[in-house]
Amino acid sequence: MKKSVLFLVVLICSACINKVDPTKVVAKVGNKVYSIDDVNDRIKDLDAQVQQFFNNKEQKNRLLDQIIDEEVLYQMAKKDGIKRDKEFQDFFENIERQAIINFYVQKNVDSLSEVTKKEVQDFYNENMDRFSAHEQRNLSHILVKEEAEASDVLSKLRKGGSFEALATEYSIDNTSQNGGELGWVRKETLEPTFSEAAFGLKKKNQTSGVVKTQFGFHIIRYNDSRQVPVQELDTVYESISQQLINQKKRDKFQEMLDSGKEVVKIEKMEDNIK
């Protein structure tokens, strides 16, 4: 009698584990049963643009083949005892640790960082100068460390040397990869000394003398200019909103971290860093 009851319990439990609507079953891999819902759930986890790729039976079938392959490998790995492997356990521990941190941050920072329409409106009103009509200039520069080297480069330019070629050869920043081009910039966003020199040039394709800043010695070329009209709130609403959200996230994250450091005992032995 006891054996019969035990056998019945096992059957009932098995039925619970594999309880899937038979009309939805799309694959059985060992004891694992997959339904069309499993396939659709996998698709839902993809980016919206990628989801469109799986809007027909053929592509869903290919995805199902991939799911089957994964399940086969998973079952083989379990049978091989991979979970008992020390290297796997260390690897899994690291992944779990990072997942816990990411989920904790998402729960306590990302989900709580929201911005209201009033906050966006207030930011716009308080920073009208950022969104007012202004001039932008397209600039290029050559940046070197020493003044003597800058003077030498300037001399080569005045003798007919190519600005782009000299920028590629001499410039120490990453603009050397595109002939010294800085792109379109606004005066107020630049280092003051550089800004005055760049926006003081009167003619397009005019080149400055040697300009010293905290970054080194520059030779600046004025390529082109354009007038940017007033940016109305509705055209910059999303960018302001995202900017404020990002700032709230940074503030909330730092607040959470500072609070944690008050609770968790920390000892730092800098003398042992060699």
Straight-line N-to-C gap = 72 Å
Order of helices and strands: HEEHHHHHHEHHEHEEH
Radius of gyration: 31 Å
Q: Quick check: average pLDDT? A: 90
The major sheet is characterized as: 4 strands, antiparallel
Describe this structure as you would to a colleague:
The protein is an alpha+beta fold and about 270 residues long. Among the domains are: about 10-85, no CATH class; about 135-230, Chitinase A, domain 3 (Roll). The protein has helices at about 1-15, 35-45, 50, 55-80, 85-110, 115-125, 130, 145-160, 165-170, 190-200, 235-265, and strands at about 25-30, 30-35, 135-145, 180-185, 205-215, 215-230. The strands form 2 sheets. Strands 4-3-6-5 form a 4-stranded antiparallel beta sheet, with helices on both faces. The protein has a two-stranded antiparallel ribbon with strand order 1-2. α6 (about 115-125) packs across α11 (about 235-265). The chain is elongated.
Could you write a compact summary of the structure shown?
The protein is an alpha+beta fold.
Keywords:
274 residues; Chitinase A, domain 3; 54% helix; disordered N terminus
Question: Helix and strand layout, with pairings?
Answer:
Elements: H1 2-17, E1 25-29, E2 32-35, H2 36-44, H3 48-51, H4 57-79, H5 86-108, H6 117-126, H7 128-131, E3 134-144, H8 147-158, H9 163-170, E4 181-186, H10 192-200, E5 206-213, E6 216-228, H11 233-263
Antiparallel strand pairs: 1-2, 3-4, 3-6, 5-6
